[in-house]
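Batch manifest, entry 17 of 40.
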Amino acid sequence: MTAEDADAAAGDLAQAEGILPPATIAALKLADALTEHGKPQVAPELMAELLEHFDHGQILELGYALSVIAYVPMGIMLA
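Output type: structure tokens
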């Protein structure tokens, strides 16, 4: 991954098209959806995009890993 790739991933994902692989963009969209403030949700459109690249088990694993990464450090900080 180049510095340009990292900048694309950190910014607007629409700009990442053609730079990052479509599966990576879909996974980053899942990360955005699961770490939104309030009630994390995966829209049907995002689920359809994810299923183009991953099976249900892989999506579940991604969601689990993202949840642990996003919320465990916050829980440790609050302890």
